[in-house]
Specification:
Length: 216
């Protein structure tokens, strides 16, 4: 298998994993949107992945990874999230920029995981709060489901996308920040320090929080 083909397969498996984790299944349209390719290209590559026994794809039921596909996806994700920590912790790259840069590095870091973990102090999560190892459990609720007049700590951005991360950076809403929920409707209004931010419910549903001063 050529290196370029391996990269494509890994990109698809990681994307499907992210979507399956978020929504239960991955849809062709969402894969196309995240990978910035046409629906036809996605369809052709899904046929290839199914032939390799990496996915299960039934019409109108969405796409899921097989155990084999999930194993590969998790290995790539681990490298990706370690690369993000390297970029932010050692090289000083802004947290919202690390995702795109790490995507370029993840395919060429195989075999370096243990070295990276040692240098980085064995981090448990990436800069966006997502687990580096599958055994790291994260419990919380979506910001869109939070109760008003309560304080919450942001612990995770569920679906890492450049536009979303840049938007959250402009709002100063990132893991470790504490917010007070003012109202919960179609727009979620939160207070960060002296600043009030209004978030569309869809955006708020991609942010995981826990009650402030409570353990996970």
């Amino acid at each position: 298998m050529s290196n370029s083909l391996t990269r494509v397969i890994e990109d698809y498996l990681v994307t499907i994993y992210r979507l399956e984790e978020k929504y239960g299944v991955a849809k062709t349209s969402e894969i196309a949107r995240l990978l910035k390719v046409s629906l036809g290209t996605v369809t052709n590559n899904l046929v290839r992945l199914k032939a390799l026994s990496l996915i299960e794809h039934s019409p109108y039921k969405g796409i899921k990874l097989t155990d084999k596909g999930k194993e590969i996806a998790l290995k790539v994700l681990k490298r990706h999230r370690l690369a993000e920590r390297l970029l932010t912790d050692i090289l000083g790259v802004e947290w919202y920029k690390a995702h795109d840069i790490a995507h370029k590095l993840e395919h060429d870091m195989e075999g370096l995981e243990s070295h990276l973990k040692k240098v980085l102090g064995n981090p448990k999560r990436c800069p966006h709060g997502n687990p580096i190892s599958e055994d790291v459990l994260i419990s919380g609720i979506k910001l869109s489901e939070a109760s008003k007049h309560k304080a919450y700590e942001v612990i995770r951005v569920d679906l890492e996308e450049t536009n979303l991360l840049e938007y959250l950076e402009r709002c100063q809403l990132k893991p470790g920040v504490t917010v007070e929920v003012l109202s919960v409707n179609d727009v979620i209004s939160v207070k960060l320090g002296e600043k009030v931010v209004e978030l569309p419910k869809l955006i708020a549903s991609m942010v995981t929080v826990k009650e402030a001063n409570k353990n996970e």
